Amino acid sequence: MKKTLQYLALAVVLAAGPLAGCNSKLDVEPVDYVLTEKALLTSADVEAALIGSYSLMSGNRVYGGYIQFIADLLGANGEIAFVGTAVQPREFIQKTTLVNNTFSAGTWTDSYQAINTTNNVLANLDKVVAVRKDRVEGEARFIRAALYFELVRLFGRDWSDGNPQTNLGVPLVFAPTVRIDAASQVSRNTVSEVYAQVLSDLTIAKAKLPASNGFFATKGAASAMLARVYLQQGRYAEARDAASDALAGNRYPLVPSFKDEFATTTNTSEDIFAIQITAQDGLNDLNTYYSSSQRGDIEVDTSFIKVYDANDERGKLFKDKTYTLKYEQQYGNIKVIRSAEMHLIRAECNARLETEEGATPLSDVNTVRNRAGAPALTTVNLTNVLAERRLELAFEGFRIHDAKRLKENVGSLPYNSPRLVLPIPQRERDVNPNLVQNPGYL
Amino acid sequence: MKCKLSTHLKLFSLLALWLFAAPIRAQTQSISGRVSASDGGPLPGATVLERGTTNGVSTNAEGAFSLSVQPNATLVISSVGYATQTVAVGNQTTINVTLAAEATALNEAVVVGYGTQTKTSLTGAVAQVSGREVQNAPVPSFEQAIQGKAAGVFIENSSGKLGQGIKVRVRGTSSVSGGNQPLYVVDGIPIISENLSGTDAATNPIADLNPNDIESMSILKDASAAAIYGSRASNGVVLITTKRGKAGDTRFTLGYQTGLSKPTNRKKFLNATEYVEYFREAGKNANLEAFTEGRLRRYSAGNDDYKTGAVNTDWQNEAFQRAPFEQYDLNVSGGNDKTRFFVSGLYSNQSGILIGNKFEKMATRINLDQKASDKLTLGVNLTLSRTRNNRISNDNAFSSPMQIVALAPITPTIDPRTNQISGALDTLTGDPNSNYPTYYNPVLSRVGASYIATVYRNLGNVFAQYEFIPGLTFRSELGLDLLNQEENQFAGRVTSRNNGPNRGDGFNRRLTVARFTTNNFFTYRKTFNENHTLEAVVGMAYEARQRKSNSVTGQQFPSDNYKTIFNSALITAGSSRETSNTLLSYFGRANYAFANKYLVSASLRIDGSSRFGVNKRYGYFPAASLGWVVTEESFLKDQQVLSFLKPRVSYGLTGNQEFDDFPARGLYSGDAGYAGVPGQRPFQLANPDLKWESTAQADIGLEFGFLDNRISGEVDVYQKKTRDLALNVNVPGTSGFVRQFRNLGKLENRGIEMALNTRNFVGDFTWSTSVNASINRNKVTNLDGQVIEGGLLNRAIEGQPLGAFYGREYAGVDPANGDALYYLNTTNADGSINRATTNKYDDAQRVLIGNPNPKWTGGVTNTFGYKGIDFSFSFQGVFGNDVYDGGGKYQSANATGGFDNLTRDQLNRWQKPGDITNVPRAVLFDTPRPGNNFGTGGAGESSRFLSDGSYVRLKTVTLGYNVPSALVKVVYLQSARLYLSAVNLLTFTNYKGWDPEVNADYLASDVNTGNISQGTDFYSAPQAKTYTFGVNISF
């Protein structure tokens, strides 16, 4: 009996004794991931995070498709029909977006994911070697600005609609997120504050970016994005000058044949900024929804195709007179800014301001028309420029934003209808009560 | 002190050596005897065991045995199907025993964590299921065969696809974001049971086991039974014991089974004439008449047949196939005093009811026990298996066979323009059709695509057990579960409408999961002074799991004849991944019984896990229980009615750590390259305080037997309170993250379980009945205000059961204009709820509309026997749950979803003012009325598509015939049995869909919201109804 108890006591001691120090077996390190504290130590680390920002920006719910086709569907007025079975895109074209629409929620969350990554880059700029520091900063600011601009246009009222100083835009977040706490429940900044931030980021980016930078953001891209932002604000002189800056030195000549500009796997001369999609990386959701070889969910109405001149190459870039052929390449790049747009911005602004800075409106419009094989115009007025914009930039994510700034009705809805502004996603409001919903939504 | 595991193991070896060397002097005594059955014949293969030791033998063919035992030993003589007898040896040298045919299961050994106990002395809640319940069940995985057979264990198939993930819930769902499946332990070794699928639909590694190898299953339900498995015990533990050899003649058992499966139900859809009429009306109401006519013609293969109804295709038929089943199995067992073995092999080949679905299994096993000396026993359990699963797309894919029902009945199966399968080729381009038929035709995947998952599984352990002194043994087990899986997917050109114009898509993934386990523990059993019985277990375990995978995806194949990625011109993706975790544990348990009347048990497990945050490395999981065998009291000795009565009570803590391997760490991921340039991104926020989910469970049980245990059973009431939920908490997206893993929130499960077994007739004609029923009430008690959504309408809401359906409440149809109406359910100024209706979906407030969790579940099995004939049938029922038909918005929403064919109930749509119906006006694409900017066709997710999912199923029916032994002996056989069996023969339900037992696979396997996603049907295949014929012979 006594002996038995001794055995048992020994067994217990042996089993429990080493507990105090036997931790090492439990120190298992991840292999697929890197610990945050080891992720941003060197210049290369920070530069890799910058690439990560591009990758996130190229996501299908960001510039990989959603940003553009949500704008097209929201702005659609009979030119296109959504015939797919998916309910959520149809909500956009019917202007009946529900607060729980996961497409718009995805654009919101994924854009902020990219923004947080740029914030990490910007907070660690001191680690970047001097020769690349300006470029890295410029690129990060360009990405952040572009996404805030898209977010404020989709989720806030237009600049021209009411008072941007009081209208709510989207929350501005600048600090890298290290923890979630009460401070994470950010409030919406005003439309005006968001635009100010966008302009500030782009202005710095323009100053710091190099003229040539592969397919990454360049000085030209920052100028072009500035032109777009100013145009949306109706600041025509600044928009015109920024467009001229982008076009300066004919750095981005139009591709000779219109159709060759599209469905390319590399950037063309005309591309000021494009999202890179490769077979290994990225998803071109414009291809998914527009191309008849994919879902073919978005069909173009013949009435729209008929507007093109018979000789206009742009009117022939359709399959079966139903599907646009702009997105036929599954792994094709997504053109975010083409220089044709800059010609049209400059033409519009010159026409409005009755100036001829950079080029005459007639010359800019005809530059675009000539390339497409459309007969040259002899005179142009604002109406002609705006008509040209619709023909040239169709299905590239411009429609709703143009309709709003031009105060055009979209179907029976006035330009400032709350239905043309996306609701703040329900998932966001569920976790952040400080986010005020847009008018017209619960 | 810093130490390594090896040091630790060395210490154990040292101890072992020291104990080996210790002089142990004991005298032994030889006894021999014979065991006979109550009918007088010899009982071969009965176990004769010296109580409190592992010293024992089996009787030979004549029922004889001989054994050396300690002085004053007690023999325990047992045999399956007979009541165990205990005989004090005293100074006898010959002991002859007659075993009575088993009256009850009370003396049966119950496998518990790191040991066994008798049912009588058990103070925890353990559901036992005999291996007989799963033998020869025509299903891929054994859990499917015990559906409705164990109280407190809810088992649900996600659909009728084979080899898919199966939901098993022991006493409710206790985690929101972590795993909820029980821990599976085979012969002492925890095994790989996690979903390893490379797609959105889960697979089930448990299906690799051969059900015919299973001797018994113990499902540990309360803390007393389960807490010895510590941080993995909250979801219950399923202990599986495989068959072992017995001393005696070598016995061969050969089985063959063949059968056929069919779907349990079909849905009814519009025929061609109805379809055309319906869509013309829907087109007219949408002001799309010409467009509609064009589409009808297109879907009618471009001809006018649709106008006459000449083509009327029932596409549903095309989703199903003839589904044969066959199984061969052989096992051989036997041995002598020193060596015992069990060897088995099984091959089964089962076709699914859905086109292209098949599950094939080959499994072998060898279990070997060797008595090296009186003190030392060595053994090995080893199983090798291969399963091959011809998988089909997940429920949410156009290529999923069930989605075929969306095709128009006016579309011919064979396109008359090409004489090919509809959709195969475009007549103009030769490319696959992009707009004919309505959607991708899943039959094309049947002919042009394949997806084969092959698993090679090697599950084995070796063990040694040494008895130092009588009653004190040390057992060491070393187990390895090695799983190699290959998934090989190919989709040829003909599928390009589904996969993209890639001239073939290939995907190949290989995965190796290795799980190493060692258990080392002492067991001490001793009875002191007659009345004091002590059993104690103390030991340690270490487990390490590693998972490595790689995959490659290619496109552009020279032709569809080339299917390996070797032949692909464009590699579009490739990956290799690795992850691992470790668990270091110490455990102990002591059971004390006084005079077999008063029972006390206590246990403790300490688990250290690599998954926990650095601040919370070790978790402590204690449990205690008490029992009182009232019928052992003298005051109950003199009555005949109550034969057994034991109240018991237990309380303890268990944990759950089934989540990712590194949820506590702040991480960056390098998966953010861009156009060939490497990039990284923030991936996860750190949480160094992350720990296990903790469940405190209280259980009160009563076990009883009446009339010599002709009526026996048990009732349990329990409460499981889970806190520190490891929750994938939604965080503001503006942070750059959408979720964070945190210990936050509480939930609870309360329930009552009842199991009752009666032997209604004994004698030549036998009839026994077994009934079980379980009620579980799940409630999320605290989520700190978080709202977590899953499925299509499921939510985790405080105060409600997990996964409650939360959405807009459908109010029917406005008789004036056919608009769908919803209850506003807004709160009025006075706090009342506004029950007015609106036709504007967005204006209606979301409310609780249903609950996917059953109110109660149960089963009844009746078994009859008469001479050589046996007959049994089992009903299984699930009651009070709701099912949401996620496909309703397409199949049953009055043409708002497009040209999908519709269920016949849609014929009852509103057509003219005054019509009273629940189906709104047919309107194509839910086009808004002129002047409206919102659709009113009722397509939005709402209670419109929710219905009661209760059902009762005639789960199994078996009729067997045992050929009389006189007859079989003529052909030198020992026994022969023929049987007919049917699974899911009848289903009784009000559910309008295919089958109420459903949980759309792509939602259920979502890592973030899978637990919340419950009871959603999305073109999910019905269960299979399977008929089989089988024969078993032994010789």
From TrEMBL, chain A:
Q: Which domain of life is it from?
A: Bacteria
Signal peptide span = 1-20
Q: Name one Pfam family in it.
A: SusD_RagB
Localization terms from the record: Cell outer membrane
Ranges where the SusD-like N-terminal domain occurs: 104-231
The protein's matches in SUPFAM superfamilies, at most eight in alphabetical order, are given as: TPR-like
GO CC annotations, alphabetized: cell outer membrane
Keywords for the protein's UniProt record, in alphabetical order: Cell outer membrane, Membrane, Signal
Q: Does the keyword Amino-acid biosynthesis apply?
A: no
Quote the InterPro entries the UniProt record gives: SusD-like_N, SusD_RagB_dom, TPR-like_helical_dom_sf
According to the entry, every stretch annotated as the RagB/SusD domain falls at 319-407
Return the similarity comment: Belongs to the SusD family.
Name of the featured protein: RagB/SusD family nutrient uptake outer membrane protein
The beginning of the lineage is: Bacteria, Pseudomonadati, Bacteroidota, Cytophagia, Cytophagales
From TrEMBL, chain B:
* Keyword check for Transport: yes
Q: Which residues form the TonB-dependent receptor plug domain?
A: 119-237
Q: Does the keyword Transport apply?
A: yes
Q: What range(s) does the TonB-dependent receptor-like beta-barrel domain occupy?
A: 433-984
Q: Which InterPro entries match?
A: Beta-barrel_TonB, Beta-barrel_TonB_sf, CarboxyPept-like_regulatory, Plug_dom, Plug_dom_sf, TonB-dep_OMP_SusC/RagA, TonB-dep_OMP_SusC/RagA_CS, TonB-dep_rcpt-like
Its localization reads:
Cell outer membrane
**Any signal peptide, and if so, which residues?**
1-26
Query: Which keywords does this chain's UniProt record carry?
Result: Cell outer membrane, Membrane, Receptor, Signal, TonB box, Transmembrane, Transmembrane beta strand, Transport
Please tell me one Gene Ontology term that the record gives under cellular component: cell outer membrane
Q: How does it sit in the membrane?
A: Multi-pass membrane protein
Q: Which PROSITE patterns match?
A: TONB_DEPENDENT_REC_3
What family does this belong to?
Belongs to the TonB-dependent receptor family.
Q: What is the designated name of this protein?
A: TonB-dependent receptor
Q: Which organism is it from?
A: Hymenobacter montanus
